[in-house]
Amino acid sequence: MRKLEINLYDSHIGIWQDDPNDPSFKKEVYGGLIRLLRDRGWTVHEDPETKRNWASLSPNTRQAAKGNLRAHIQAAGRCVELEIWSSVARQDNRNGRRYDFDKFKRMPFLDQKSFMLERSKLLSWLQDNFATAIKGRSHEPKSADEKLAQKYEECTHTDPKLGHPNWHADYNRKSADGRLLEHGQIVWFAGLDGRLRRGQAFYNLNSMWWVKVSPYELTNMACSKLFSIQPDDLRRKRNTRARRAKLESLISAAIARSDFLRAHELQLVLFGDQPVYRIWSRKNDAYYGPNYCGYSTDANRAGRYTREEAEAEVRRVPNVLSLVTPDGQHVRFDKAA
Question: How far apart are CA 255 and CA 251, in angstroms?
Answer without folding.
Answer: 6
